[in-house]
Structure formats: structure tokens, C-alpha cells
Amino acid sequence: MEDAKEIRSEYLQNLGSVSYGSLVRKFLQRAVKIQNHETVLLVGSGSLAGSIKPWLKDFVVKTWARSDQTEESLAWQKISHVVLCIPYDSVHDPQRVEFWKKNPGRSILHLGGLGKEAGVWNELLDFYPLDTLFELQEVQNSFRTEKLAQAHAACEEKTEWRLRYGSATRPLTLPHGWEDLPIYA
């Protein structure tokens, strides 16, 4: 148990989950450098938006889903970061892009499709299509694979140590990280 705890804490921490919500949160924190308590506009009311919203608990999340045009215009002009959970829309997208161009320096993550399908969205500097999340997922998978291989090697090393020397010759460590307790006694 002690070996498992040590290996888990050294190699298997912060590997994260692989869901749209976790990837969106990581993307906003790492790529866009959004800070906790900043406002994010989540556009959409379907299952994708519903699965992402709980992962954004560190941010102030405003939602918008099919209300009047004036309200949409105000939302697009005031919010600095938008996550779109709706498909590309050749009718409404040009107007949304124009709303966005009025205040540059903000970011849009569009989960409605790949970059090659984005049309007018590709005119924006801080526009990130669904491909962006797929790239982040690949990086996460590589990191996870590397850490699991290191953990596996550490397990083999610990097993070899135990078989060769037994547990009695191993340095004394106490569970729960209380190794310093004998010093104070």
C-alpha cells in the first residue's frame, strides 16, 4: 500500500479526465490565460453546453440560447470569452462576427465544427475551432501515456527491490507522510 501511495502521488496526479468540459476548462486556462472569476458566455442549451457548464465553475458563466436579437448583440459586445456549443450558421454567423470585431482582443472557442468549415469565423484573430480541443486532447493523451509508463516502471522497480531485499532493509517510512514523527519523539 505504501508503494502504491508513493507511485500514485509521484506519477499519477493531475492526469485529468478527457471530456469536452475538462478540455474546454484547460484550454481557457492555458491557451487563453483566462483567470478564475472572469466571465464566459456559453452559447447553446443542448447536451454539449450542459456537459461543459459544470466544468466552468471557477468562472462566471453567462448563458445565451435563442432570445431576441438585441439581447444577443449586447451579450456578444460585452463578454470577453465565448464558448459556442451550437453548429455553424451561415445566416447568423456573419452578424455575430461583426459584433465581435467591434471589440478585438477577446477569444471565441467554437465547438460547432472544424476550422475548415468555419467560414467567416476564420476572419477573427482569437477564434479557436473544435480542432483546437482535439489538439489539446492529443497532448493530454501523450502526457498521460508517458506518466503511466513511468508509473509502470516504478512499480517494476519497487517489485524488484522487494524481491531482492525484502521490506526490512528498506528505509523506514510511515504511512500518511509522517516520516518526521520519530525525530520529534
The CATH homologous superfamily of the largest domain corresponds to NAD(P)-binding Rossmann-like Domain
Rg value: 24 Å
* Total beta strand runs: 5
Overall geometry comes to: elongated
Poorly predicted residue ranges? none
CATH topology of the largest domain: Rossmann fold
Total helical segments? 7
Biggest sheet architecture: 5 strands, parallel
Strand fraction: 5-15%
Structural class designation: alpha/beta
Query: At the first level of CATH, what is the class of the largest domain?
Result: Alpha Beta
Number of domains: 2
Pattern of helices and strands: HHEHEHEHEEHH
**Mean pLDDT, nearest integer?**
80
| Helicity, as a percent range | 40-55%
Give me the CATH architecture of the largest domain, please. 3-Layer(aba) Sandwich
CA(first)-CA(last) distance: 25 Å
Spatial strand arrangement across the major sheet: 2-1-3-4-5
